[in-house]
Amino acid sequence: MEELGGGGNGSPPRVSAGKPPRHGGTVHSARDRHSAMSVPAFASAQDLRCLDLEKEAGEVLAECSPRGVLDDGLRCLDSETTSKASTSYTETQMIRSSFALWHGFFRLWKHKSMRRLSSFPPIGFRKRSRRRRSNRDSRVPMPDSTSAADNESSFKPTWRNFTISELEKATNNFNSENMIGKGGSAEIYRGCLENGQLVAVKKITRGTTEEKTHNFLSEMGVLVHVDHPNTARLIGVGVEGGMHLVLVLSPHGSLANLLHDSKDKLAWGIRYKVAVGTANGLEYLHERCHKRIIHRDIKAANILLTEDFEPQICDFGLAKWLPDEVTHHTLPSFEGTFGYLAPEYCMHGVVDEKTDVFAFGILLLELISGRRAVNSSQQSLLMWAKPLLEQNRIRDLVDPSLGDSYDSKQMDRAAKTAYICIQHSSVLRPRMSEVLKLLSGGDEGRAENGRALHRSFLRRTYSEEIFDAEEYNATRYLSDISRHKQIAFDF
Ligand SMILES: Nc1ncnc2c1ncn2[C@@H]1O[C@H](COP(=O)(O)OP(=O)(O)OP(=O)(O)O)[C@@H](O)[C@H]1O
Questions:
Q1: What pLDDT score was predicted for residue 92?
Q2: Residue (of 468, 379, 453) closest to 416 by Cα position
Q3: 112 assigned binding-site residue
Q4: Could you give all domains of the chain from N- to C-terminal order, each with its CATH number?
Q5: Which residues of 438-452 are buried (b: 16+ CB within 10 A; e: fewer)?
Q6: From its phi and psi, is residue 378 left (phi > 0), alpha (psi between -120 and 50) or beta?
Q7: Which residues contact 482 (CB under 8 A, 6 or more apart)?
Q8: How many angstroms separate the alpha carbon of residue 474 from the centre of ligand 1?
Q9: What is the distance between the alpha carbons of residues 187 and 70, in angstroms, rounded to a whole number?
Q10: CA 427 to CA 464: how far, in whole Å?
Q11: Which of 34 and 429 is assigned the larger pLDDT?
Q12: How many angstroms separate the CA atoms of 285 and 227, rounded?
């Protein structure tokens, strides 16, 4: 997704094989659309048979959508939506039937297995797997011995449903002057609620009704379950007259805005803060959320900045949830943004934490150099920066507009961290918790020599296994990238 006007200004487009990149925005694969509206990953085969949905089960094994989200969405729709005047009947019906499908499924599922039910907490209730208990975010208060069932009956959603008239009022009828972003699937409008709160209203605009519904539900499903200072905040949704996500407004827009489109150059101190904050947000998604969330589209346009330049990861349209027992996703279609795509994804469609780590490495290079991931001549930042990093020519990487106004120790750490994150072999890439240590100077030894790390230090991921099995070099990576570009642009 690009900023408004960003699609044609050299920002790398997000693509999907078999579909043209549209205004540089999100395009989802047919399989994704299908699966996201189907059944949750933690359904038993028996449940699925009851609903005659076995066929989808194989496809959506690792596809999760939060039980509480959609259950509650249904309640919201039934109880709060009042104004029908400008409702698009087809879209509202579509959302209702998606909710209804989920609702029916969840009723059955709830009835059949309270144990499984407790594996996914309702909104506003945090429960994390034992695996991550020690890593929990200490900022978030945890309910102690209360059971999931008790919590289910007592929890209140942390978001609300907006009527179309409320959204129209807030955005001055979605006035084009209030449009602050536009991508492949959505337009984003600045708005002001009656209580004075500034919001960003993301109106899903592109695609068929099914595609729009998928995009809306997928993103909502993640947004309602993440709660971290470095992830975007959902205030509510609106399903009349289209599908809308209402988010807290980020006054500075995205990092791409400030880094590439602004006359005023971003100071190094802010860039470093953005790097550390984004790493924090990703570490939360990968390692401290109740389910592992892979963002899949980390890039400068998807990092929003708060008033005091705290970064917030946004746009969860491509995000995937990985249950603990699932090592990875293998995606049949090609989605993402040129310039940020990890080799194993290009080659095998494999998605796990390390694909985000790779994209984060590219983001670090953008912060260091002030260059785009892919420039207007389609040259990749990766290919430009890698030889410089290999020769330890960090000074040559640095954005000339910074002059000498940067902390050289921070710069050094950022460059070396980037180098490790962009390793072709995902085995050699660190996890986000390690990235945090590297960036903040807590793991200097590893930063000094990314290739000499001890493998036993890392928990192995599927993409790591793959790289053990075969060699994937820069030439093959480039050829894969150009093949994918060809497919995307020729369509
Ligand atoms: N909460 C917000 N506050 C301020 N600006 C925002 C906010 N959310 C989005 N934007 C702006 O809108 C742009 C697009 O947002 P987003 O990436 O969520 O849209 P999208 O249509 O999902 O994109 P894509 O095509 O990648 O799917 C952002 O890069 C940012 O400039």
A1: 55
A2: 453
A3: no
A4: 158-249 (3.30.200.20), 250-444+451-488 (1.10.510.10)
A5: bbeeebeebbeebee
A6: left
A7: none
A8: 32
A9: 23
A10: 5
A11: 429
A12: 10
Mean pLDDT of 384-402: 95
Looking at the CA of residue 315, tell me the nearest atom of ligand 1.
18
SS3 assignment, position 340: coil
Q: Which residue out of 47, 297, 352, 480 is catalytically annotated?
A: 297
- Distance (Å, rounded) from C-alpha 290 to C-alpha 285? 9
**Using 50, 70 and 90 to split pLDDT, how confident is the model at 15?**
low
pLDDT at 181 over 60: yes
How does residue 184 score in pLDDT terms, banded at 50, 70 and 90?
confident
Instruction: Give me ligand 1 centre to Cα 220, in Å.
Output: 14
Q: Say if residue 261's pLDDT is above 70.
A: yes
The Cα-based distances of 137 to 127, 280, 312 in angstroms read: 11, 11, 16
ipTM: 0.97
**The dihedral sign for the CA sequence 463, 468, 472, 474:** positive
* Total length of the chain: 491
* The residue type at 205: T
Ligand 1 site, CB within 6 A: 1, 3, 14, 25-26, 180-181, 183-186, 188, 200, 202, 232, 247, 249-250, 253-254, 257, 301-302, 304, 314-315, 317
Instruction: Give the tokens for residue 168.
Output: 């129209």
Sign of CA dihedral 6, 8, 9, 11: positive
Ligand 1: residue whose CA is nearest its atom 13: 181
Return d(Cα 333, Cα 342) in angstroms, integer. 14
Q: How far is the CA of 281 from the centre of ligand 1 (A)?
A: 17
Joined together, the tokens standing for residue 104 give 């029916």
| β-pairing verdict for 320-322 and 2-3 | unpaired
Residue 130: pLDDT over 80: no
Residue 430 tokens, joined:
């660190």
Q: Specify the 3-state DSSP secondary structure of 61.
A: coil
Helix ranges (DSSP H) in 143-285: 148-154, 164-171, 209-223, 255-260, 268-283
Side chain identity at 25, as an amino acid letter? Answer: G
Strands of the 160-161 sheet, one edge to the other: 2-3, 179-182, 186-192, 198-204, 243-248, 234-238, 160-161
